[in-house]
Amino acid sequence: MAKKVLEILTETMFYVLMSFLRQERCGIEIAEFVEQKTAGRVRMGPGTLYTILAKFEEEGLISEIRVEGRKRTYRITARGIEAYHEEISRLRACINDAESEGEI
Amino acid sequence: MSKSVRRWIPVSLYEIAGIESWLSDLSAQGLALERFGLYFAYFRRTESCKMIYRLELLPRPMEEPDDEMLDFYLHNGWEYVTTLNRLFWVFRALPGTAEIHTDAVAQGYAYDKLSRKLKQSAIVVFAAFLLIAAMIAGIYLFSEWPVLQLVEDSIALNQFLLLLVELAAVIQAFRIYRAIRHLVRRLKSGLPMEHYGNYRRGRNVHVAASVMLSAAVIASMFFPIWGMKKNWEMPLSEVSSPLPLLPLDMVEKSPLFAYRSSLFQGKDHDNFVRYEWSVLSPVQYQIGQRGIVSGEEWPDHSGEYSPSMQIRYYRLVSSALSDPLIDDLIYRYVERYYAPDNNFDRMKLSAAGLDRAELFTAAGRQILLIHAGNQVMMLRYYGEKNLAEYTDTLAGILARWSE
Lengths: 104, 403
Prior knowledge:
The complex is a heterodimer. Chain A is an alpha+beta fold. Chain A has a single domain, classed as Arc Repressor Mutant, subunit A (Orthogonal Bundle), CATH 1.10.10. Chain A contains four helices and three strands. In chain A, strands 1-3-2 form a three-stranded antiparallel sheet. Chain A is globular, with a radius of gyration of 15 Å. The N and C termini of chain A lie far apart (40 Å). In chain A, 31% of the residues are buried. In chain B, the strands form four sheets. In chain B, strands 7, 8, 11, 12, 13, 14, 15, 16 and 17 form a nine-stranded antiparallel sheet that branches. A three-stranded antiparallel sheet of chain B has the order 1-3-2. The longest helix of chain B has 38 residues, at 104-141. The two termini of chain B are 60 Å apart. Chain B folds into three domains: 4-93, no CATH class; 104-192 and 200-225; 231-401, Protein Transport Mog1p, Chain A. The interface between A and B is medium-sized, with 31 and 28 residues.
């Protein structure tokens, strides 16, 4: 069984991982993606962004692919995609559990 | 208005909230942080402008944030100031700026890594302490004459200081580890980091501990060198200053007695004075004397009569050490050294001014040990005269030396 990389993906971490699905991104692009995707609901401070990127890179969920001028660009790895799908499954299960309880 | 000023860092660098509060309070007094040193932080005088400061754990090993990071922090209102101890970046912003961290759990992952490192280093420091303590204890516990060794050892204090420094390092390492582990638990439970810390409460203790530790480290380096520099050795005939000396010619009383030198590599190994310093005995002398009495032979006709005397004198820092030192000297120079012969007669002597006097006599040799207050003297004599006759003289010598 593969090592469990992170105990839990927080909402911010989940969106950061999501931001890489379609393209490689640098830090500022990730922050913009999250802001747009959540319509400003999820705000990501700079410390949080770079802490998550460092943690994801350390755990092998993303990898740095190039440094150009002031930009450091990353892309998701197979392990990152796997972690992303695991989180989607978990969230779906949560939603299904909630829906099976019906409306109040 | 641009003069740099320094302030003593009032708390450990790992008391993050305390450092942040302190920097913020100083900014309100018109001191803007420039950089951190080992004990001091350096500030630039500015207009009084309250700022908020944040210590940001380095996300990866790098001295400064890269350009993209700097842009993004600045875009969010945070200005990079300096790097602290290759562990934290220091940022500042105007009050009301949105926080650097918006996800406590994610921040907890970063501190989790630091916590594991701190745990490892605390264990290593503790193991080193145990090793050093065992080595130092071993030197004295397994010594056959521990008090004598401590008294003569010029690095005994050095070892003690080293142990103290190491103990302080162990306590500090575990304190830091405990504080960061507590922080990790808080963050992982979703609670954001505290940014207010009362740095005034432990300020004096922290500053005093830092000063004392530094002094201990410097002293532990300085004492052995100082001790060695104080030591000297000279031929007895060249020493003009008073010595704790019972002259051999006074004991022999013969007009035919003459001191005899034995020169080897320019040093007189028979008639010499050696001065040594140690913490427990700041004044120590070893004095050697040897001579011949022309025309006289040893009673067993083994050759020309050539008496000698070695004196050891100790002025101790405490008279409580005198008796244990004499016991060790007896063991070292009588019981242990002459154990195979085991033929010494032991005699307790008394003289005004002496707290203890014991004479060990065997054929052709005597060992006299005396102490008065914090002074201890041992005379090892090879000759045919009786040292017991000189206890009053020796009491007088010690009385003069105690003044």
